[in-house]
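Researcher: I'm preparing a figure for a lab meeting and need a structural model of a single chain. I don't have an experimental structure, so a prediction will have to do for now. The sequence is pasted below. Please return the structure as tokens so I can convert it later.
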Amino acid sequence: MGFILLHVKRMRDTSRHGYFTFCVAKYFTIRSTACHPLGFAISLDFSTNIIHLCEQTKGHYALTNQLERSATSIGANIHEANYAHGRADFIAKLQIALKECYETEYWLTLFVRSGLVSKEVIKPLYDQCGTLRCLLVASINTAKKNTEKKTDP
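Model: Understood. Here is the structure written out token by token.
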């Protein structure tokens, strides 16, 4: 299971939420049940960028600690999913990574709203987080669909 990300686009939302991200993905089959290596590579780059941001942010240790923990947990859970005991464990690890992705988006938004970091600095990180979210959602949906196919008689 896996996919190639073709396009990620941020569009202006007319509601009060501001922006939304959508992804167009093309699916293909991978022989192993491991998560596509692209997700791991992106999550590793994202975690590294978050660590650098937190090193530059002075004070507010509790907030930077939460951001670091949630952001680095995404990649750790993706990596751990590669060594899952079964398909259900694989899906569970990816779902945990997705929840951490949503939490990371919250902390990034809080950093901007509180004035700790400018929007211009956060935007590339927010885009990377959105890309990871799209990868995770598509991987989870594909894994669930493949599980349903195997259980059907």
